[in-house]
Design goal:
Order of helices and strands: HHHHHHHHHHH
Number of strands: 0
Number of helices: 11
Largest sheet: none
Helix content: 55-70%
Structural class: mainly alpha
Shape: elongated
Distance between the termini: 77 Å
Length: about 290
Amino acid sequence: MTATAPARERGDARRPGPTRRPAPRQPGLLRVGLARTVFEVRGFARERDAVVFVFLYPVILLAIFATVFGQDEEVLAGSGVLFPQYFLPGMVATGVMLSSFQALAVAVAVERDDGTLKRLRATPLPATGYFLGKTGQVLVTSGLQTAVLLAVAALVFDVPLPDDAGRWWTFAWVALLGTATGAVCGVAFSSLPRSGRSVTAVVTPVVLVLQFISGVFFRFDELPSWMQQVAAVFPLKWLAQGMRSVFLPDGATALEPSGSWQHGATALVLTAWLVAGLVVGVRTFRWRRRDDG
């Protein structure tokens, strides 16, 4: 007769081993980007001075130009284009630049300087999620800012808004492409200032110069030809021109040096700056301060 194992040992042999719990499922990149966008928008809303500046600056400029040049005066005799209508596209364009390029260049540089980026890099948040959150915040703020500006222009200054789908389609792709380009270039430019304290002094002159030479404050066709050529290198000129094609009548092409809206060139230049900003940003972006290794 063969010996048998004790009942307790036989029971232990039949008892199943410990089961492994599956690893927690990581959230998708889109979900991370949306969550980060909500976080960034809330953070932006807490900065009351930045909110007031970003939202009111284009409105105040439109009111100033409409008052100085005359709300009922034509830009060019017989054109039917009044000064508030002519300056509205430039205000939309400069608003997009403020909420994308300038806002991100300053915000990212400050977050790098105060150690926020360094701490984020040590968390499970992917780098792509951080940049998606910044881009989403720019799209939200830029969209709200533009909506406020258009409402004021229509209700206060009687500026006629487009009434056909084609013009709104042009508005959509110019605004989205311009916002994306400004956001990418802002992130890339944020690595240029040596510290968060100096970023405003570096970014503000660039923004002001581009506004003066890009047809935001003056009729673009009245600027010196050399200034027009310099402005044509940068995206703000094309963003403003694309917006003029939306809000001005077709006959207003007479106010353009080229005699046309040049939609193809607008898309090409904005896309080129978008790609260049991505390349430069990937190569130069830093998560730490210069003196932090």
